[in-house]
Amino acid sequence: xxxxxxxxxxxxxxxxxxxxxxxxxxxxxxxxxxxxxxxxxxxxxxxxxxxxxxxxxxxxxxxxxxxxxxxxxxxxxxxxxxxxxxxxxxxxxxxxxxxxxxxxxxxxxxxxxxxxxxxxxxxxxxxxxxxxxxxxxxxxxxxxxxxxxxxxxxxxxxxxxxxxxxxxxxxxxxxxxxxxxxxxxxxxxxxxxxxxxxxxxxxxxxxxxxxxxxxxxxxxxxxxxxxxxxxxxxxxxxxxxxxxxxxxxxxxxxxxxxxxxxxxxxxxxxxxxxxxxxxxxxxxxxxxxxxxxxxxxxxxxxxx
Length: 304
Description:
Elements (H helix, E strand, L loop, with lengths): L8 E2 L2 H7 L7 E5 L2 E4 L2 E10 L6 E7 L9 H19 L1 H8 L2 H20 L5 H39 L5 E2 L1 H30 L2 H9 L10 H35 L8 H8 L2 H26 L1
Parallel strand pairs: 3-6
Antiparallel strand pairs: 1-2, 2-4, 3-4, 4-5
């Protein structure tokens, strides 16, 4: 099994010599493919422990002649590529889970079952209850579309990771890096929107739907009795998941408060409204990236 960082390979003598004064004999180094930055090519040289090679200790940016780049902004641009590669690697297991069609298939079954249930109960329900049933069906339809998009983006990103793991990419161009960032953002945004849909559903429609489903007089109208058991298990599970999603939302809001102190305290309606916007999700991602890059730069400057 490969021990070096995603897409990195053991350092060649040229770069070994360049960073030799800045590493201990107990440390290991590897190097990135060529990285296009501002129209020129560079490499990242990573310093890690010989035993725990996945733990990065320092990162240098070098030009093709082996000269270490001291310009802070240029180094930061190089580190942003490292951040992306590290994020892709860290998200791999989540991406594999996202690619699984189980969630989509489950939602499709719920959508079909609820449509049949809504039709069979139509004459028994009040107008308000029928509206709630239609909105619940709409919720499942939107969730299916998001789930399919999440699967598709995960498949694209896993293809990128596979190419990087097999060292099939010898030059990381600006175009390629932009592609990866785009697909990663789409995947993250759709995951957050799936969470938002679930929270909205739980705070508006789901309570009314649970009353209909749990009403004993409606049992005989279910398309099949197995579906009644499935839907009650679904409600028990989705309520717990919603609580987790709310905690995620509160944590994200705290990050946004750190960026813009005028955000104020967490309020569910305000959070749901703002979180639907792509700019909100992008701000959270960029804020985290900036924090990581600044930490890496400060650490590098203290050690270099």
